[in-house]
Amino acid sequence: MVGITSIGFHIPVYRLPRNVIAGAWQTRSLGGDKAVAGHDEDSLTMAINAAHDCISRLPPKTDASAVFFVSTSSPYKEKQVGASLASSLDLPPNSYTADIAGSMRGATIAMNLAMGMLKGNLAKQAIISASDCRLGLPQTDLEQRLGDAAACVSIGENDPIAEIIASYSVFDEFLDFWRMEHDTFVKTWEERFVLSEGYMRVVRKAVSEFLKRNNMPAEEFSKVILCGPDARSQAGIAKALGFDEKAQVQEPLFSAIGQAGSAEPLIMLGASLEKAKAGDRILFAAYGDGCDIFALEVKESIPRVLEGNSLGKQLSRRTNIGYEKYLSWRDLLSVGFPRRPDPEMRSITRRWREQKRILAFYGAKCKKCGTVQYPPQRVCVQCRSKDDFEDYKLSGRTAKVFTFATDGLTPSKAAPVVNAFLEFDGGGRMICELTDCDPASVKIGMPVELTFRKLNQFPDMYDYFWKARPLAV
Ligand SMILES: [Zn+2]
Questions:
Q1: What is the pTM of this model?
Q2: Residues lying with their CB under 5 A of ligand 1, a single-atom ion
Q3: 358 with 350: CB under 8 angstroms?
Q4: CB-based burial, 413-449: b 16+ in 10 Å, e otherwise
Q5: What confidence category does residue 79 fall into, taking pLDDT thresholds of 50, 70 and 90?
Q6: How far does the centroid of ligand 1 lie from the alpha carbon of residue 465, in Å?
């Protein structure tokens, strides 16, 4: 039985209230907030964090063998991020990796590809991590509408939380939202035309055909997800297709996150699954130059979606920021830093040599005395035995702040920088930057979790590494 075996999320903690944007431009506010990626986040980091969150809920021994990175805003125009994702997840080298770019329904395109790979015995489990960080031109509605987030699903046969019982896809060439080679901001056309002739026409026709082909009446579904650019049009299509707007339609989380690009369909699916019970049927449709539709049947393992950092928990964790900070974090406003030497760039050779330590976050454990060390060393600090270590994975582990120092001089878009000496639960210590926290709230003994971030951004390359942030309560 092919189905969704797990789902995970990364919703940035930062929120920009839309009335703050409206206040800056003296325009109307669309209400609610948009989620904003931190100064050290991008589509790659958010996708990796969502994927780690997803696998934390997988049944044991369900290694993935295919990985898809889905985004319209990859930090790289040329370079596969799927390989970074697979390396961070520490997958076997013969895993299949791919990037799917440019489409709002990239996640469901990947789901269809994964289902085909599973049926053809080309993969046992596929991880699909969709992440977007798109920009709307300042002072336009799109600036308020677009939000940053990532979500990840795994597709497999082992103990799914929701079985895929039917699927259907159509393509439909339509220019509604786009970016050209040189564009920083998303472009669009006249709103009414885009909604009525694009999203509403395509999704309504495709879902109607899907229901007819599978002989499934609208009332059979407890939830219907009609992912698209606007809540009112979603409700309009649902009504036209015979769904009950209040009881059946999944709300798009517009006021909590905003339109999260290619991550949005999976976020809406997650919101739906967190409220579902075994036996429920969900109709799941994603739109973008066509439409992908799935009918899902929720299984007994569904309580798994509420474990750990669930979507509901991530949505409740939030810190408001101001408009200037948002502009500076997205490189739309230049700001000054204390005059200090620039950080040193780690060479590509060194980065490649230390890939396992950096991406999959491996330390070493002394085989003789059990001491955990990070970074891995040749001699044990405790018992002095030499070259007698085994790999020890630190990602996914929690730690406590042993001690810390606040540094107001290091150039940072979120100064002051807090560097903490962490003590991992289960052993091991390391110095690490703290993020997603108010420096004044950091305390000795504070529990933290690891999160993958941009450590530095140089003119020619990104430098990624793990940071720590306060553990969600
Ligand atoms: Zn030792």
A1: 0.96
A2: 366, 368-369, 371, 380, 382-383
A3: no
A4: ebeebbebebbbeebbbbebbbbbbeeeebeeebebb
A5: very high
A6: 26
